[in-house]
Give the backbone structure.
Amino acid sequence: MKLTVVISLLCSFSVYAKGYSQSINLHLKNADMKTVLKEIKKQAGYDIFYNVELIESLSKKDVYLKDVNVKQALESLTEDYGLDFNIEDRMIIIFPRKETVAIQTVVKGKVVSVDGEILQGVSIIEKGTTNGTTTDQDGNFSLRMIKSGGILIVKTLGFVAQEIVSSDSFLTVTMVHDVSQLDEVVVQAYGTTTKRKTTSSIATLDMSNVSSLPVQSINDGIAGRLPGVIVTASSGAPGAKSSISIRGGLTPLYVIDDVIRSSNDFSNLNPNDIEDLSILKDAAATALYGVSAANGVVVVRTKKGKEGKMSVSYSYNHIFSQPTLFPKRVSSYERASTINRLYLDETGNRFISEEDLEKYRTGSDPLNFPNTDWQKLTMKDFAAEKRHDLSVTSGTKLLKYYAGVSYYDQGSILKTDKNYNKRITYRLNTTSTFEKLNLTATTGFDGYIENNSVPAQGNVGFDDPSGAYSTIYSHIQNTPTNALAMNEFGLPSTHPDNPFRELDPKSGYNKGKSKIINVNLGLEYAAHFLDGLKFKFNGTYNTYYNTRKMWSYLAPGYLIGSKVPVNANAPSLTVGQGEGGMLTLQGYVLYKKQFGDHEIDFTGVYEQQQSDNSNVRGSRVNYQIIYDQMVAGPATDQSVSASEGEESRAAFLGRLMYGFKSRYSVELSFRRDGDYLFPPKSQWGSFYAVSGNYILSDEPFMQSLKDNHIIDFLKLRGSFGVLGDKKDFSSGNNISAFQYVSAYSINPTAWVINGNLVQGTSEPANLPNSTYSWQKINSRNIALEFGTLNNKLNGSFDFYYTQRTGFVVGDPRFSQTLGIGLPRINFEDAEYRTEGYDFNINWNDKIQGFSYKVGFNFTYSNSLWARTPDESEANLKNPYTRRSGIPGSFYGTGYQNLGFYTNNSDLLLGAHIAGAGFAAGDLQYNDANGDGQINSDDYRRIGSSTFPRTNYGVTVDLGYKGFSLSTVIQGAGSRDRNLGPVLQGDIAIVSRFPYAFQADYWRPDNSDPLLPRAVTAPSVNSRNNLQTSDFYLLQSRYLRLKYIQLGYDFKQSILKNIPFQQLKMFLSGTNLLTFSNSKKFFIDPESDTSNYQYPIQRTIAIGINATF
């Protein structure tokens, strides 16, 4: 009764406070009004009175309020529900707004995103009332209006709210992504944050633009999209994975659902299973991963189930691939004519008679004078790839689940069915919520099965199956056209490196299978005794099992006119298997609390890892019968090897973030890492980082700029940290264990001494040292983030600097001629520095029904060895060739070419290498030291690094009435590689000139050629034209249309009534256009080959996605 009197009195007049200085900050998802008001009471300190039944009857909603006062907060909350409020002193009363109820009409419509995606659960409220509804699973809504011609407020998280005038006709509401919302979830080390609160350098990937791309690995989907991230494809062979580098570093660390995983586990992820992907670039972002994170971290959070009706999504892509470049070959007649011309110019005689030359021209004797098109004979026009993806998600308040399965089948471009890579991935994630117990339980079960088969030919090894593709492909390209592929009976010839013979069904194989299974259990308890405190446990077990069988056998060859096999090799068989597992246990203490303007966020973790592995391999050689089983081989020529290992690691880590008014934030990160690889006194290393941000745009003096959208968002952030690494400089791998004790090998010889059996041992294999420790990495980063023009234009700029010291190397005070492993030390004089910057800038807008988004990202990285650990004293004193102290990377050392000798005067006056036979058209080298001779004293640093210092990408995303177009353009700056011997012509004359460009060599009538004078043998001019120099360095900067995808959602117009949320078709292409100087040599600029190996592929794909 007393409350009724108070409300009545206060409703008779409205007295609003003139100043409400308390700052309200709310970020609640699907919250009821009672919870929201309770939080406002806590932050503002006001007493709030309301009718309980009225408030509990209101629908739940997402609430995001940032630095607003009490009045503004209440106005935002009450307007949509038709409520009103009064504020008197420290008391707030909420009551229904008086309104006239007169039902006029029913409004129907549909809500979609600018990308054509159907939006479920969107809030539709009649403005000024509590009358409202939400969209169903098909994005449809129906609302009976209270006011004729009323306004509809359309809201949902992540999109700009809209006000739509109601209409009798069917409404289609297109929602635009709210790029100004800074509560976007960002995955970070051991948790999540928001874009606004981030104090470190983290790049996030929009998975909506990647999941539908026809790529065989998520690695490829990242290319060209993120600043500071360089993705390079070196091969297009089935199963080959692109490499990822963060700011020019080596292989990064991969973390999936808070657990460290292998690069293969990441590469084999189904892109459709990924919810969020972040790239952690600076020390503040990576410090919690300690010693493993020296080269950056790729963090993935997979999809979880969502509350609501079951949603099923299926997609299929059929892909056609072929090499980006086919080297242009010459016919046998053209090749023979070139060789004849060379011999006539040099000796006055022909190498091939006119009669034989005519046979090449006419093809009258194809067995003895063949013209073999090796590409057509051994390669398909297109290789086929197929990808199926199926996912199901559903859930209730108690249990939610996500299940996904994917199948990928990739064939090779070679004309054989024996070469392929097939992969099945699967995932099941569940979340169980027990509200009364404040307990959340999660389970995860995922893995993949991968099968691959490659030829077992050439110099391919058991541990490098993908190398077989490059071996055979180089034979296809480099074997001259006048070599015979088969005799008249269609049987393979005996010609060496005959790819037709290597691909014969009778030839061997190299088959492997990998099975990976991961099981995860997580428990999270929200403490009832302290608000904001949580305890979490996470346990993951990863197990793998690999098998491989290589039957190394080259099918027999046949002579012309014969069906009798000759030249058959004795087969060999190698079989191996490996298995192992890793157990990861993590215990978390989490505390997050807002105290008025103050916010604290703490994460503390204890982590422990234990792993084991075992491998066994056996082989038999010189088989006398063609039977690919171990029992059939001779036991006299057999070998067996095996290995086992166990590893353990532990770490204590923590992160504390303090924020004030959501405007200033400081974050401290610390990790104490323990690793068995180091001596006992240095097994534990401590790593830390300090970072902070300052949001200038939230300062009162910036308000006018915000109001006019000159500066909508402006943030400064900076970080400093110390990380560690456990790499051995000499090998590039992790340091070997137990280098601090003497190691001995067991000798099979044993003795009986005084009746006791004494096992023999070898001499010590190393000199021990117990003082070496972790390599140290100091990292700094400073950055600016901005948004302007109503946040349509936004971006960020990062500048970074890292310094590596304490490299673990063999003690340089000892000589390698000691004949024993050198003791490991931290070479403190060695120092490696890297500095650079990366930035991105984006424009996002909508013009009526047309939406567009354009982005540009750029990465620059430069390095300097202040002092290299392995450079000799003699080279350190040479200012022209030393590496130490030289800013910028270079290819190597060699001669600087001055072009071609053009006449005898040049030859007489110019310096040249020791030897004879020089003539016009030969390469002329710089006599750098001016002593009149060309020798190693004239070596200088030449070329650019094989790794480009600049990388950039352009992204374009367009949408219009169900149509979508997405494009990525990727490019790289200066980068050199050296042409291989075959391309230089450093091979016997009988195999020379297989390519059209090689005929463009210097001659008196061709004084502006691509290549220097050709000679019948390298010795003719003392190998002058084959010296190590910058002439054969191929500049490989490039610009490439990496991806383009055109899509159309039939659900938007043509097939509105079908029972699907989405029915979309795609037409996609990858690597369709490339601009680069390296194309004149038919070398893909992105690859790392200096010869012709299995090429990067361009693809065309058609796909479909159906969601219902």
